[in-house]
């Protein structure tokens, strides 16, 4: 089906469970933000400065190195290298465990300095550290959860990851308010309760994915094999460049958060952070289709079906454009539908509305370009997609640093963010059209 099935229907059929899983996973942050926003503006501002860092961990573990895992497994299966696909499972576990411990250590040691740079101060900084220290103490669980899900996703099986993540969210939804506000035997522990509930979600999903792979039902099975540098390289070659892209993407929002925090204060940060949270929701929404593109483009590239792989890439990008543009236009026309979910403070609503009205109409272009990023990840050609992300970051960070002191209006920074989305789309489209994805060997069916 992935190598010779009809392209549009195959992309759609494989993507819808992955869209569910990614939206469900992203909703964990939204659910917690909604609950924690009831504790006041300082806590909402705290979540705004922690969220870019936490989302960076999600995108690194699930989208970057997770994509590298899926890409390597899908290419191995497409080329009939079954033993290599089995060996990749153990290597993925070792790599994700190591990176999970390393990322936890960095944030636990330097979190205070990082959040202060992002504009955290006073009560908001204190709340940010309380939440962050608990979540990052269990960060290896997030890395293992996303790494194991990526192993399964790389075989073309997107339903099991959807079931595992959605099941974890079902646990999180009632547990989070119980721990935050106190219910029955649970004491009210405020911000800390949100962090504990998130760790329970990571733990349960990790057990589910690990059990499925150990059961032998996954096409890439767990086997004890000697660790080899070449196998790690299969993951790292794609994962490292993708990680750089993830860092740059999150740094774009983080730099804007820092500029706003230092010049305009907590209320503006809360408004921008809540509005930008919708842009973060685009990442998992596009990744829902992007996970399919990684598998399909990877397998077709491995099998030598270059033209078919390119058609798959632009088909998925078109689907993502429609989804993202509908969301962006809705937010631009009626920003209150989103913002009032989290707060009714007039200053926050005004700040978030300005952001969504300016940036929202450009969401479709970001969805199109980001889908092509995943297609290039599947093919293992990420140099120019990373350049696209860096160009977007430089436009927002450097341009914002230069223009804000001159105009004194945050609307100009939001205009730069919108221009960055357009620039990113143009670069990704151009590099995908020109990418060489291996020797051409046409399958029996093209579409």
TrEMBL record:
Protein topology in the membrane: Multi-pass membrane protein
Compartment annotation: Cell inner membrane
Signal peptide: none
Keyword tags: Cell membrane, Membrane, Transmembrane, Transmembrane helix, Transport
Keyword Hydrolase among record annotations: no
Source taxon at top rank: Bacteria
Ranges annotated as spanning the membrane: 43-67, 88-111, 131-151, 158-180, 186-214, 235-260, 280-299, 311-334, 354-375, 382-404, 410-433
Chief place of localization: membrane
MF terms in GO: antiporter activity; xenobiotic transmembrane transporter activity
GO cellular component, one term: plasma membrane
Annotated InterPro entries: MATE_fam, MdtK-like, Membrane_Transporter-Flippase
PANTHER family: MULTIDRUG RESISTANCE PROTEIN YPNP-RELATED
Name listed for the protein in its UniProt record: MATE family efflux transporter
